[in-house]
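Appendix B. Raw example, untouched.
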Amino acid sequence: MKWKYYLYLALFMPVAVLPFWALYLLSDGLYLLFYKVLRYRLHVVRQNLSMAFPEKTEAERRAIEKEFYRQFCDNIVETVKLLCVSDKGITSRIEVINSDCPRGASDCPLFGALRQLGVGACRLGHVCHSRTDDTDLQTPS
């Protein structure tokens, strides 16, 4: 199983070191690929939007659909960027709005969820909850 981790690392690290402007150009290319070419799960997205927003017109739902795919592709490249972005880089791009969450990681469901997602999310959670008392964060093996 460790070989998969190193394979993913070898595939994604060259992308992770790119500057953000290049990542967002890559994201635009992924948008075209997923939405226009592959039509990745398009029927599911359209069905969900029609159930969630029955009062909206078809044109309004299509606009939401396009925005979803753009955000989805941005999330992909931003997640890959977490492999090598510094804590300073993260804090310069994130503003914590709802800081009412208890500082202890065991008390905060968000931090627990981030922790289960892996190293990048743990780093993000660590930066957002910098005064946590949970010190056993480790990289996946």
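End of appendix B.
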